[in-house]
Specification:
By secondary structure, this protein is an all-alpha fold. The protein has one domain. The chain contains eleven helices and no strands. The radius of gyration is 23 Å and the shape is globular. It starts with a helix and ends in a 9-residue tail after the last helix. About 30% of the residues are buried. About 10% of the residues have low confidence. Keywords: Membrane, Transmembrane, Transmembrane helix.
Length: about 325
C-alpha cells in the first residue's frame, strides 16, 4: 500500500506536495499565457497539408494506406492490452500516449480518406481541368491550380506542384485539432520512450516486473508509427505547440493525484511520482525539464527533414514553407 493510502490527509499536507504542485501549475500557466501570442505569429496550416504527401511524385493514396495500416496495428495493440488487463492499463502515461497516437491516426486516416475521395471524384469528372483537393464540407476550401497538368517536363510539374501548395487556404477546426494531436503525440512519445528505456528499465522495472512483448512494442512502435508518417506527410511542426504537450502531461499528473486523493489507487504507476520522499520535488523538476529536450528532439527531426530532403531530392520534395 502506498504512503498516500496509509497516511490519509497527512500525506497531502507535506511540504513536498506543495512544491510539486507548483512545478505542475507554473509550466501550465506559462504555456496557457504564451500560447495565444505565439500562435498569432505562426504561419497558417493549409488544408492539404493534412493529407497530401511532401513528395510530389507520391500519390496521396500511399499516405492513406500507411495511415490505415498504422491505425489498425495501434488499435490491435490497445485491444490486446485491454483484453488482458482491463481499463487499469490507463493508469500509465504510456497507454495515455499510445491512445493519443491512435486518435491521431483516426483523424489522419479520416482526413486522408476524404481528401483522396474528393480528389478522385473531381479527377474523374474533370480529368483535363483544374483539380480541387478538399470540398467545402470538410475544410471550406477550394483550389485553383492543378497538381499535374498535361505531360510536361518534370521540372515544370514540380513547379506547378509548389504553386498549387502555395495558393491553398487555411485548414479548418478539425484540421487544427489533428495538428495539435500530432505534435502532442510526438512530444509525449519521445518522453515516454526516453523515460522507459533510459530510466525505468535500467533502474526500476527490469528486476521487478520484466519486459512484456506488448509493453516493449508500445514503447517502440509509438515512435516508429509517427516517424514514418512524418517522413511522408507535409504537416508543419511549429514549436509553440509544445504548450499542448505540457497540458497533456499536467493532465496525467492531475489525474494521478485525484485518483490517489480519492483512494482509487493504492500504488504509484511510476515510483518517482510518489510524494512521500523528500526528493520528490527533484524528480518532478527533472521530469518537467525533460519535456523541453523531448519535444525539441522531434522538432529537430522535422527541421532536419525540411532542411536536408530538399537538397537530397530537389525534384521530388515539396516544402511546407
Amino acid at each position: 500500500m502506498s504512503s498516500a493510502a496509509a497516511d490519509g490527509v497527512g500525506y497531502w499536507l507535506r511540504w513536498q506536495v506543495f512544491v510539486c504542485a507548483a512545478l505542475i501549475a507554473v509550466p501550465a500557466a506559462v504555456a496557457a499565457a504564451l500560447l495565444p501570442r505565439l500562435r498569432r505569429a505562426a504561419a497558417p496550416l493549409r488544408a492539404t497539408d493534412l493529407w497530401v504527401p511532401c513528395w510530389a511524385r507520391l500519390h496521396p493514396g500511399w499516405l492513406l494506406g500507411y495511415r490505415v495500416f498504422a491505425l489498425t496495428a495501434a488499435t490491435a495493440l490497445l485491444v490486446r492490452l485491454l483484453v488482458a488487463n482491463g481499463l487499469a492499463v490507463f493508469f500509465f502515461y504510456t497507454q495515455w500516449t499510445f491512445l493519443l497516437v491512435t486518435i491521431y491516426f483516426v483523424f489522419a486516416t479520416a482526413m486522408s480518406a476524404h481528401g483522396c475521395w474528393a480528389y478522385l471524384k473531381k479527377d474523374f469528372k474533370k480529368a483535363d481541368e483544374s483539380h480541387e483537393f478538399l470540398s467545402d464540407d470538410v475544410e471550406n476550401h477550394d483550389f485553383s491550380t492543378p497538381i499535374s497538368g498535361e505531360r510536361k517536363g518534370d521540372e515544370e510539374k514540380i513547379t506547378n506542384y509548389h504553386e498549387k501548395i502555395a495558393n491553398e487556404k487555411r485548414a479548418g477546426f478539425w484540421g487544427r485539432c489533428m495538428q495539435i494531436i500530432y505534435q502532442t503525440s510526438a512530444g509525449a512519445t519521445m518522453l515516454t520512450d526516453v523515460t522507459f528505456w533510459g530510466l525505468l528499465v535500467p533502474f526500476f522495472y527490469r528486476d521487478n516486473f520484466g519486459l512484456a512483448l506488448v509493453t516493449d512494442g508500445m514503447h517502440s512502435l509509438n515512435a516508429v508509427f509517427l516517424l514514418i508518417d512524418t517522413i511522408m506527410n507535409n504537416m508543419p511542426f511549429p514549436w509553440y505547440r509544445m504548450a499542448f504537450f505540457v497540458f497533456w502531461s499536467c493532465s496525467y499528473i492531475t489525474f494521478q493525484w485525484v485518483l490517489h486523493a480519492c483512494g482509487g489507487l493504492s500504488w504509484w504507476p511510476y515510483p518517482f511520482l510518489d510524494l512521500s520522499s523528500s526528493g520528490a520535488p527533484l524528480w518532478y523538476l527533472a521530469m518537467a525539464i525533460a519535456h523541453i529536450p523531448c519535444f525539441f528532439l522531434y522538432w529537430l527531426i522535422v527541421k532536419a527533414k525540411h532542411t536536408y530532403f530538399p537538397r537530397l531530392f530537389p525534384r521530388d520534395y515539396v516544402t511546407t514553407s
